[in-house]
Amino acid sequence: GFAHARCWPAVGRMRAVQGRMMAALGRWVGEAAACGVTGFLEFPQIAVIAVRYASKKAGGSSKNLGGNSPGHRYGWKKGDGAFVRTGYILATQRLIRWYAGANVTMGRNKTLVALEDGTVRYTKEIYVPPPRSSESMKIISRLPKGAVLYKTFINVVPKKQEGYFKLVDML
To answer: 91 — phi, psi (to 5°)?
Structure first.
């Protein structure tokens, strides 16, 4: 049984609900017998469908939140004629747009970095791919007759090292 006296009204309400349910079941069984249903588990042909409407408006999905990220800021960082020191980043790129020239190296993520202090120079050079390479098969076959391919190189022209070796001059 129940230990608390507070629970007795709840038990009474539960028993009243059970009684009403049993009465409804008895009426249903009686109606079923009147319809000619012989077995207890058989259902009458008339069915009532209860439709339940939503009590709250459905909320939309919020999974598409990834579009507000900033861009990667790819591109050239030092223009033609700019003075750079060793280690300066000259250009960042996703695909290879600029190639490493003199005194420039290309990092793992295709970043071009200066190897010496000096002035930046951009140069364009004619590019002729090897005759039997896959690049020549793909690119050259699509070009019009007489077209020329160019590659852009970023170079660093080292500045003259004047006044750096004072100790050497003294010897």
So the answer is: -160, 150
